[in-house]
Write a sequence for this structure.
């Protein structure tokens, strides 16, 4: 412990010394200055790996960035206000989280678990695979991974428990679907920055989206089958005496919410107005909780309001974290990482850009759309095809699934009732394998 402390102090002194040297090197640039601009990110990642609180890690990296970029407190204050405002405008995940928690408190997901155990017996691997399909379908249709995970993760936890491969499968499915969805912000960013028709981009990426979805489903299926012995416990005592009809009634709010999240975009498109928008399915779900569970109307509404506390707290936390990440971005750190592709041999340009996007997505993956604004201009300037740009976008999305501040990661941590570091550790080998496969696709198809 003492040795680690001394090493940490020595490393901190070296980082501070380099940071103070940076302003004098800025005009000359060079490799050393590029390393110095990336150094705050390395400090943050190192501290997070050591399980230091994410805000403490961000503060350490942010202070270095302020020294390197010679930013004043006025800049930092402005960044904080802007970052927190941005995070608190992510309305759909907030609404979905609140509703899903209300359904959970009313027993909807526990009733669903009881029905699942009675109906499929020992074939829990089928449920593990089906959960990933639901996550992918909901994300692709809504364009929002975090909002879908808020609803599906509690159901998954009730059905199969916190199986790492199921969590990883949901993460991979979310990443490849929200980066290629016709309804997502990320597709809009690709269209705007690369001047690609959204429909052309979506159709170009569909085979690869489907391929990675199949991989995610297989991961969940095999993992659940291998670990199913851990989840063969008895039914919840409160629900043992209930008939299947009573259980189905209590599950209705959960079923409706799931269908609204998955099918809402299609229904709204057909209707021509938000028939199943967040307000509509919020009111209907609360009414169903009142009608189908033991909760009174007041208890149903209270459960909804209480359910928003977790996500609002996390979004506030992420907003503070992004304050320091944005300060690091102003030093040019992300441009340095993305720009590494420029110096590569032609055959390695696309794979390098994919890895650069992945690397940026890990520390800054709270809001993938904003990262694309830093990464994609480099890809466009290098003359990437729509397919290659899609691979880079997917790479950023996969990197975000190892991020402590990503909304989908926060949702999975909450829904599966495990620390976020456990989510990331479980995701690491599978997401790593997928990024290796994506790099391979970049070599072969670009």
């Amino acid at each position: 412990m003492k040795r680690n402390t001394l090493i940490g102090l020595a490393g901190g002194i070296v980082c501070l010394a380099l940071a103070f040297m940076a302003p004098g090197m800025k005009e000359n640039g060079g490799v050393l200055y590029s390393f110095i601009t990336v150094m705050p990110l390395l400090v943050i990642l190192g501290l997070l790996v050591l399980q230091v609180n994410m805000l403490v890690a961000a503060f350490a990296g942010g202070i270095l960035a302020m020294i390197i970029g010679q930013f004043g407190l006025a800049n930092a204050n402005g960044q904080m206000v802007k970052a927190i405002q941005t995070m608190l405008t992510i309305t759909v995940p907030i609404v979905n989280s609140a509703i899903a928690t209300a359904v959970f408190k009313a027993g909807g997901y526990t009733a669903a678990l009881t029905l699942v155990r009675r109906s499929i017996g020992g074939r829990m691997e089928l449920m593990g695979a089906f959960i990933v399909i639901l996550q992918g379908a909901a994300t692709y249709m809504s364009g929002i991974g975090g909002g879908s995970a808020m609803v599906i993760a509690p159901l998954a936890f009730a059905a199969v428990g916190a199986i790492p491969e199921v969590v990883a499968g949901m993460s991979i499915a979310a990443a490849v679907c929200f980066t290629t969805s016709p309804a997502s912000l990320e597709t809009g960013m690709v269209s705007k920055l690369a001047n690609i028709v959204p429909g052309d981009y979506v159709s170009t990426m569909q085979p690869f989206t489907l391929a990675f979805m199949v991989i995610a489903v297989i991961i969940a299926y095999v993992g659940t089958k291998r670990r199913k012995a851990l989840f063969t416990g008895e039914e919840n005592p409160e629900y043992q005496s209930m008939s299947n009809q009573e259980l189905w009634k209590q599950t209705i709010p959960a079923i409706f919410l799931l269908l609204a999240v998955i099918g809402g975009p299609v229904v709204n498109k057909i209707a021509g107005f938000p028939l199943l928008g967040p307000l509509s399915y919020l009111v209907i779900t609360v009414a169903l909780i009142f009608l189908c569970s033991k909760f009174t109307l007041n208890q149903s509404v209270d459960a909804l309001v209480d359910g928003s506390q977790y996500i609002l707290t996390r979004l506030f936390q992420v907003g503070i974290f992004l304050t320091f990440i944005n300060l690091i971005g102003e030093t040019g750190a992300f441009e340095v990482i993305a720009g590494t592709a420029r110096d590569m041999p032609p055959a390695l340009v696309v794979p390098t850009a994919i890895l650069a996007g992945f690397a940026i997505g890990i520390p800054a993956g709270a809001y993938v759309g904003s990262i694309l604004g830093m990464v994609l201009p480099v890809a466009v300037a290098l003359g990437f095809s729509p397919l290659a740009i899609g691979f880079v976008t997917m790479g950023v999305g996969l990197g975000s699934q190892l991020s402590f501040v990503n909304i989908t990661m926060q949702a999975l941590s909450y829904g599966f009732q495990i620390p976020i570091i456990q989510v990331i550790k479980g995701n690491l080998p599978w997401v790593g394998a997928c990024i290796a496969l994506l790099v391979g696709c970049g070599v072969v198809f670009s």
The chain has two domains: 1-70, 77-446. The chain has a mean pLDDT of 83. Residues 50 and 350 are 32 Å apart (CA to CA). The longest helix spans residues 297-330.
